[in-house]
Amino acid sequence: MISTTRGRIILLNGASSSGKTSIGRELLPLLADPWFLIPVDALGEMRSTVHTRVLDDAEIGATLTRTRIGYHRMVAGLASAGNHVIMDYPLSEDWRLEDLVKTLSGYDVTVVEVRCSPTELARREKARGDRPIGLANSQTRVYAHDTHDIAVDTTHRSPAECARDIVRALDTLPTPKAFARFSAPTTAPG
To answer: For the chain, which ranges sit under pLDDT 70?
Structure first.
């Protein structure tokens, strides 16, 4: 039987190396129902890396944009079938939020802001070795939306502690949630 009830979505928004994926993994055993953790980076890992020609910067940018647009629709597809989804996804470009708002309009989306100090982000990037140094601290647009339902800071708290904080807050959130406020039309002054 196909579900007609949409699944819930938790959007973990934060800079690279802020702890989104680690928090997502810690959330999975804490949530009562089955949830899918779908990090956007997982799509990049599925993409071929060997090409018969070298892509220029414009082609790389277009590929990444298509991948992210597809990610939005993949999450909507899973949730539309009744699955609960944890998105691990930085809102680092304005168009990402705009497309998500259109794609996930009417879904129950909880926005979790994942913060971390600039010093700790730089330390984590260096330790990881798989990201350009300075990427996380350059992603200032991630927090520019200034609208979220829950905020956690991984600077001095573990992913497990942050996940527990998120779970405790999930059922006590006021409405409308942040995502619905993103979707709401604004009235021009005057």
So the answer is: 1-3, 48-52, 136, 183-190
The domain total for the chain is 1
Nearest CA to 175 out of 112, 84, 99, 110 is that of 110
By the 8 A CB rule, do 89 and 21 touch? no
> What is the side-by-side order of every strand in the sheet holding 8-14?
35-39, 84-88, 8-14, 108-115, 150-153
Residue 172 has what DSSP assignment?
Answer: T
CA dist., res. 152 & res. 161, Å (int): 9
Range of the domain at 164: 8-179
**pLDDT in the model for residue 103:** 96
Domain assignment present for 184: no
The pLDDT of residue 187 is: 41
